[in-house]
Design brief:
- The protein has helices spanning 73-81, 164-169, 175-185, 199-216, 236-246, 258-271, 280-289, 328-338, 344-347, 361-368, and strands spanning 3-7, 15-19, 33-35, 41-43, 50-53, 69-70, 87-90, 95-98, 103-110, 125-128, 134-141, 152-153, 187-190, 193-197, 247-250, 253-256, 278-279, 308-309, 315-318.
- It has 369 residues and is of the alpha+beta class.
- The strands form seven sheets. Strands 6-11-9-8-7 form a five-stranded mixed beta sheet, with no helix packed on it.
- 28% of the residues lie in helices and 21% in strands.
- The chain has ten helices and 19 strands.
């Protein structure tokens, strides 16, 4: 068994030298030296402590590997209260710890300090398990779903779709974040398989939902009130996803989210004019007529910021943000190739997701201009 001798200075840092065997080093207040089993001497006036560090467990015993993990207050509070379960999830690139509603990414933090695991028992005893050159820390992140293997449903099902429960288990996100992201994607379940509805399917089912509510002349509704619109190829899971994506809930009743709905229909309509400059007045008319009858929310071109540019006054050009580079510098170049003189409010949505928390977007623009 290998052990290490620690010179312990009250209020000072710790340094180590290696000894050949286990030992106990003691020093009495007022004394000037302390002997170790190897015969070396520690020169200092120290209070009395008993120190022991075990680097390797007995070969006949069950072996453990100890790691140091810094716990954020949110995690620590939940562990102490035992109010929720914690889940460890991973993919090929990352490892995360999830609560029911939050996701924390784990990373290794290297350092050159000496770290001891200590026991809070008697004041005259310090028990250390291992000297370590790194610790793990948890950083809160937004949970996400990897959609690369999820088939798009446009009326036809896939042969071997991924199971929805397996998809959640393999997603780096908490349960609540998974549901929120899943509905936002237009996710649904068909024959126990996970699918994402195509834009056409979402538009058709949303149109039917609004038309049904207009005929009922109600502002609040429950899923049961509109279940009659479910006919093949639609199912309950699809309707649930549409309701959560385009409605708000209050007192267990749903209401249409006019802004999200008009944005959706506006983006769909704008995508039809791809690579073609269009008068704003003409587009607004087409946008209005694309909505269900008797549904008259306010429309403004600014609601679609992040999907168009205006290189010529009173005209717009559709810009698909998914077609732009994920490299911010390259994205800047592509955007200014589309429009040499951007309106500030129309430009910001294209780069907002690249701005680190706590940093001003204007400083990013100045650095890249």
């Amino acid at each position: 068994m290998q052990a290490s001798l620690f010179r312990i200075f009250r209020g000072a840092s710790l340094t180590t030298t290696t000894a050949a065997a286990s030992f106990t080093a003691t020093a009495t207040a007022g004394a000037t030296t302390a002997k170790t089993l190897s015969g070396s001497t520690v020169l200092r006036k120290l209070s009395e402590y008993s120190v022991y560090q075990q680097l390797n467990e007995d070969t006949n015993a069950t072996k453990y590997t100890y790691k140091l993990l810094q716990l954020p207050s949110k995690i620590l509070n939940q562990l102490e209260s035992k109010s929720t379960n914690l889940y460890i999830k991973s993919d090929i690139n990352s490892l995360a710890l999830c609560t029911d509603s939050e996701t924390f990414k784990l990373r290794q933090m290297n350092h050159s300090n000496t770290v001891l695991l200590l026991n809070k028992e008697p004041d005259n005893k310090l028990i250390g398990f291992q000297k370590t050159s790194y610790e793990y820390e948890l950083t809160e992140i937004k949970g996400s779903i990897d959609t690369s293997d999820i088939p798009i449903f446009n009326g036809q099902t896939a042969q071997q779709p991924i199971d929805l429960i397996a998809l959640e288990d393999n997603s780096i996100c908490s349960h609540q974040e998974f549901l929120s992201n899943w509905y936002e994607l237009g996710g649904c379940e068909i024959d126990n398989g996970a699918y994402i509805m195509s834009a056409d399917i979402i538009t058709e089912l949303l149109y039917l939902l609004i038309t049904k509510l207009m005929s009922l002349q109600v502002h609040e509704f429950s899923p049961e009130d509109v279940s009659s619109i479910i006919t093949p190829p639609y199912n309950d899971s699809m309707l649930t996803s549409i309701i959560h994506k385009f409605c708000t809930i209050e007192s267990e009743k749903y209401q249409l989210n006019d802004l999200k709905i008009t944005q959706w229909f506006g983006i769909v309509e704008m995508s039809k004019i791809n690579h073609k400059m269009t008068d704003i007045s003409e587009f607004l008319l087409n946008w209005k007529t694309s909505l269900p009858s008797f549904y008259n929310p306010p429309l403004d071109i600014s609601q679609l910021a992040g999907y168009y540019c205006s290189p010529i006054e009173n005209k717009i050009l559709y810009v698909d943000p998914e077609s732009l580079s994920e490299n911010l510098s390259q994205r800047f170049k592509e955007l200014f190739e589309l429009d040499k003189s951007w309106n500030y409010d129309e430009f910001i949505p294209f780069i907002k997701k690249f701005v680190p928390a706590g940093k001003k977007v204007d400083s990013i623009i100045l650095n890249l201009s």
